[in-house]
Amino acid sequence: xxxxxAEATDAGMRTAAHALxxxxxxxxxxxxxxAIGGAxxxxxxxxxFGMATKGHASIDDILLLFIYLELGAMVGIYFKxxxxxxxxxxxxxxxxxxxxxxxxxxxxxSPDVAGTGIVVVSGAILLLALATLVIRFGSSRxxxxxxxxRD
Length: 151
Known about the structure:
This protein has four helices and no strands. By secondary structure, the protein is mostly helical. The chain is elongated.
């Protein structure tokens, strides 16, 4: 009789601890997502006002806004689906490399001065584009089962 009471108490404590753990993890998850989203919006607004005070926006500035847009979309998708969209990280990397490429070409004004850097950055963008193709093909060919991530 005493063993059944101890087992029932143990099972109840495990259930309560599991439920409390889920609540704490979810609370941290949402708090972190709101903090990241707020930081993205804050940075984007600050960058936009910086462009407005300059009186014009360069292609570099516009690509920076696209990076903020992609990061915001990634946070929104993660908030709604609880899945990290890896493709968006690749898009951010491609946009950042494009910014680097444009800045490099604008700074040197001639392709032969920075030829190696241009080829390396262009190759990296191509590699990321191929990675996106592989991920899209893999996700359409071998879809993952949908779950809420809890067992």
